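Folding Query — how this chain folds
Tokens — whole-number codes for backbone shape
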Amino acid sequence: MKRTPAALALLTLWIAALALLGWFVQRQLVIGADLRLFLPNPVTPEQRLLLEEIGEGPASRVLVVALEGADAPVLADVSRALVDSLRENPNFSVITNGEMSPDAVPDELLPYRFLLSPTLDTQPLDEKYLHGELLARGRDLASPAGAFLEEWLPRDPTLELLQLLQRWQPMQEPHREFDVWFDRAGRRALLLVVTHAPGFDPDRQKVALGDLEHALQQVAGDRKVKMTVSGAGKFSVLMEARTRGQAQAFGTAATVGMILLLLVAYRSFGSIVLSSLPLASAAIAGMAAVSAIFGTVHGITLAFGFTLIGVAQDYPLHLLSHRRPDHEPADIARGLWPTLATGVASTCIAYLTFMFSGVNGLAQLACFTVASLAVAGVTTRFGLPVLMARAGRDFGDSRFLDRLWDRIAALPHMRWTAAALAAVGIGVIVLAPQAFWENDLSRLTPVPRDLLITDAQLRSELGTADARYLLVVGATDSEQALRTLETMEPSLQALVKSGAIGGYDDAARYVPSPETQLRRQQRLSDAATLRETLQRSQTGTPFRAGVFDPFVQDVEHARSLPPLTVEKLRGSPLGASIDMLLTQRSGGVSALVTLSGVNDVAALQAFVRKAGNVSLLDIKDASEQLIAAQRTRILWSLAAAAVLLIIVIAVALRGRSRVLRVLAPMALTTVLVLAVLRASGESLNLFHLIALILAAGLGLDYALFFEHASADRAEQRRTLHAVLVCSLSTLMVFALLGLSDVPVLRAIGVTVTLGVIFNFVFALLLTRPPPGDAA
């Protein structure tokens, strides 16, 4: 490095600018965690609903909790204590173990029990009914449940509230031990937890899971109770932690390897500083651009972005490798700039297509990468030469490189060999038996299979909502939605009885339509009539006169109540269930019917055809269709980018043969990488596409520089030195990623590793000048 005043001043200003811009980014950039940013922007109402359900729907927010490791009575006690401990926790909207307690309903809603319960639909509060109920309560008081009922009976002798609470329990009732949920074997106490955080928000889910663990430690004490938590939120935390952990570990290893490689290649610590400045500038500029344009950036975008700007690290390496004692660095940079600028422009064009992919996460990725590559290229051209001193040696003046180049030059030209390889590769791609594209998002999860099996078992025990199927009812407002749901109930009950579904849940189970409530209200007797009826009903029962006056007061209060609305219920503990099942959308309301134990999809489809304004949403099928549509759009964008790239290369090189020599290695590499992936049984996904574009950018860079040096033997050796260093540094990063057990990281790592190897070999062999043209 130069130590002149101008160089030191520039270095100081450069570092200060990076620090200032980094401070701005640190203050402004908000890192998001919603994985739906990597799904297409919805166009139709059904697609909008689909994306909402994937991230925020009822099934995605549910955590299933199992307690084990102690005797059943102990587990039941810990289960109750855990519910009590977390009932007011702001991270949970629902936490239940199946225990039915009147205390779960706020006092202001208690008189509404007569309007919400279906009892009055078939049974008036007459003398015969009340006498039978009072006789039953007399027997109850003599039973072990008497202590629980004694305090509550004066207000609710018909146990209307308990019937209502039972109605609000899951339709597919789990097994019970000691009045709380257990598995069928009676060895694990089960709880159902619904978080406020969406399923794909790992940061907030991590806080909720931490609260669960802390609460268990508090209530269990020294009792050795083990807790298992399963669900989308748990899995998103696991995926985020595993992905971040492996990326950090691989990144650290790659950084150490990169430093050692630079020391071996350039034999000075100054080369490390010089090569890191454009890369640091690229990273901070990319984050600043995303922050300024999008405000919020997904953590995965940043992780991918830092990986993809690996192309940018090649720019200073080319300048370092081409230094020589008889030329100023500024002159060398000026000579390399046309080739370097062509590579920068071409790679930016490829990534720019993601801006029009219809996927916010990819648009952020495009913005980050394009800004990064542009800044890396410009700083390499105009900033680094001012800091560089003349090299003490010519890195191309190496006996090893000289012998290596002679051996490469002696190889036969492989025009027909390349054509044959391309034909074989295309054949493998076409004839591979597996599906070409992977549309199943679950195959990209790093969640171990045993955890997925445990999740399925626990959900089966609890009868929780099916994560795949939903019934969707469209309505103009919530009242119309509730009326429609009520008309559907007999048919849904028939589906349960036939075994087509195990159970269902909808908003009408919690709050009937206003018409239904008013009809029940009209069947309530006035206070005087009810008091007389009760007096006659008490004959032959153990209850004294006047003991049920609180009951009469509640009924009288219920007679004057306005119907309970969805809006009022939203402020109660039941509000979370209503919010998930009845959603206000632009132009109307969508009412969801969640299903459990779906065994006969054909029966569901037949029900939907007869029901009218009801649709069956198959989340798996709909998501695969959405992904396929997204991929088609991206492929068309990439096709347009390929045309633009060819135009840029043609304008820069101005020669048909030169253009073909530069593009041939990249095209052949793409075909062979695809062939290897297909031959290994891989179906391609979005991340393979991202990696293929990165590999194509690297191949274009190698080919451009080899073609640039094709007429100068000394320049050929310097280019060989540069490309060797570039390819080895890239290979270190992506070969490590290829060892990951996270499917996304592995897909990128394996694809780019193959791309680097093929691109290096074919750039050497296919960009060589025809015989007699080399100097």
Q: What stands out?
A: The mean pLDDT is 83. The chain is about 65% helix and 10% strand.
